[in-house]
Amino acid sequence: MVCEKDPLVTKVCELYEQISRLESLKPSKDVNMLFTQLVVTCMPPYPIDVTKLCKNIQEIRSKLIRLCGEAEGLLESHFSTLLGSYENPLHHLNIFPYYSNYLKLSQLEFNILTKHYSSQNVPTKIAFIGSGPLPLTSIVLASNHLPTTTFHNYDIDPSANSKALKLVSSDPDLSERMFFHTMDIMDVTNELKEFDVVFLAALVGMDKDEKVKVIDHLGKFMAPGAILMLRSAHGARAFLYPVVDPCDLRGFEVLSVFHPTDDVINSVVLARKFPLIPMTTTTKQFSVEQPTTILANKCFDHIEMFNPLNHVNLMDELAIDHQDIHQHLS
Question: What's an example GO BP annotation here (predicted)?
Fold first, then answer.
């Protein structure tokens, strides 16, 4: 059982106490400094299993993930509002301090996706769940990697979608290919069958139970054979984001799990919903394919290290507007 005696846990708990006493999590010198320290603390590879934390530390981790999520949302909202004040917001994305990191994140996820998607069969419709006020992953993928694909962005917050829509509305291309839906994803059912690929943001489902509930919902309504790409966390980075274990992906075949050991914060998990296979040649009935060995073999940490992605300099979604961390990562 891992408790307060562990030096990393001690440091994380100290930072949690300071963060939880902040009057506001909006971008400021103090907020940026504390979250910078937290990210730097959790970034290096560290042999810790958060499932073995004692109850008190588990509760602190859960609260800390929610604080990180709130701070991230406020940071994105701040910069989305700033970008929205320009006549052509997409021409100024580089004012977001970690725009270059999103370029690298999108390249990483696109590279993983294309390993399981033929170049002749490009996805036509992609859903991004939890797109937020600054949907940079969708924007970068649509602009740089998937120029004919339409993107449907789902977020439960109407103000986030309003800000996001303002960013793309003046662009003649993206305004035709990017759509925003203000909905709880748990209320989206048959529409999910329309998508070739579904991205699930790291902070949709802030704890294990919530995350699994969302994944089960996607498993029920996504089209057979469709791809699910989601973000997880590994080691000490699990103090920043929820963890998705491959075993949580019921109804999916896990194709790739990438645990970065560099500056990329999130792990990336790619899975395919089991396809339908004919039960008989005469009745035209179908069942969901359930391979007998895949789940058993996928319920462990598989590190897929391929060299072009091994040195990605990326803070990912916990982008902190702070010069020190920028120097640390550059």
Answer: nicotianamine biosynthetic process
Q: Which residues pair with 232 in a beta bridge?
A: 267
d(CA 248, CA 243): 10
pTM: 0.82
**Same domain flag for 68 and 110:** no
Three-state secondary structure readout of 30-53: HHHHHHHHHHHHHCCCCCCCHHHE
Token pair of 205 as six digits: 């489902």
Are 104 and 43 within one domain?
Answer: no
Tell me the pLDDT tens digit for each residue of 259-287: 877 767 788 999 999 886 555 444 444 44
Are 40 and 162 in the same domain?
Answer: no
Q: Which domain holds residue 57?
A: 7-87+321-329
Rg (CA), the chain: 20
In three-state secondary structure terms, 99 is helix
The count of structural domains within the chain is 2
187: enclosing H helix or E strand:
none
